[in-house]
Amino acid sequence: MKLTKKQQELRFKILDKIYSKGPISRIEISKETGITPATVSEITYNMINEKLIHEVGEDLSPQNKSGRKKILLNITPNHSFYIGSELSTKYISFCLANNTGEIFKKNVIELNQLTESFYICKLNEFIESCKEYNPQAIGIALPGHFDEKNKRIITNNAFWKNFNLKELFKTITLPVYFKNNVKCMTLAERLFESNNNNDNFIFFHISRGMFCSYMYNGKLYAENNLLVGEIGHIVVHPNGELCECGKRGCLQTYGSESCIIKKSQILFDNSNNTYLKQLVSSRDEITIESILKAYKLGDEGVITILNSAVRYISITINNLSMMIDSDKVIIHSELFNEPLLVDLLKESLNQNINLLSDNEKQNFIIKKYHDFNGCLAATALCISKYLLMN
């Protein structure tokens, strides 16, 4: 049966609520969406028949002691499958995931250089390997924003600025969606994580560059303003180091991976005592992994570089907490795969929360970094476009 536009809107609204708050009862869906209980029951009945959602049992929480037990609904895994990919200066990644974010296939290809033709070839190979799952759409997480008209990436990075995605559409017949990689990760956090507090949060991503995305009332904030989220270009040190954007003292020049690598290369060139010289044979081989190894070995120069980076990052996070209403701040970086740096960050964050009472302290969460976080996040983009907005 073909749904009217209004019926589709109600269906998407209900399904979105189950994704973000499930397991959830029909009555709670009605309360939180404003949709009548009868309409919620009718729409969820149809979605159960489509095997898109299912009943998971009674609500046994202490709040549901009296009266008729509420039946909880949740998303049914393996209803559909999606392909996600992330473009990065370090690697390209691909994964096939189901509609609940469970990965079935994945591939990460480390890079020295990348061409459009190589990427399209590898993407087509991965699509071919996933045919038995009948993927419904492809999501691509970008190191910048997508220029829909010209099919290019909007960024100040010279390489990505000239990376042409037009050819991709000539060989791929599935629906393809593009979005900034951090915004994709924010969508994934809301749709895939089993946390009923996923409508208001900040996602702070630190990699070669830095970006901050804000989920506000269940929606990505400021979708049409490309400057919002460019956290790496807020000034933290007036008259400080020159940034690639032309300003001085940007956070990116103190806390980004590219800055940390650059300063570690200078250390490599000028110090005979750095452990980096035992870990790599040339400055060009220095990576975040080798820097973290030197940090754990007690390299004083590397410790100074990383401690400074963490201090600037923590100041920025605390400033965000005082400006933006959020239930939590999620921090995502390969740097914080190192427990010592996590401890340092937490210590630094706690030094700057004296304005808040114990009951109002911000919830800071360190999200484990993996090479496939971005490609999995791109499948969340597919779900948001294909299942929740189609």
Automatic annotation (TrEMBL):
GO BP annotations, alphabetical order: D-xylose metabolic process
UniProt key word Nucleotidyltransferase: no
Domain of life: Bacteria
Keyword vocabulary terms for this entry: Carbohydrate metabolism, Xylose metabolism
Stated role: Transcriptional repressor of xylose-utilizing enzymes.
Family: Belongs to the ROK (NagC/XylR) family.
PANTHER family according to UniProt: BIFUNCTIONAL UDP-N-ACETYLGLUCOSAMINE 2-EPIMERASE_N-ACETYLMANNOSAMINE KINASE, ROK (REPRESSOR, ORF, KINASE) FAMILY
Protein's recorded name: ROK family protein
Native source organism of the sequence: Clostridium perfringens
Lineage: Bacteria, Bacillati, Bacillota, Clostridia, Eubacteriales
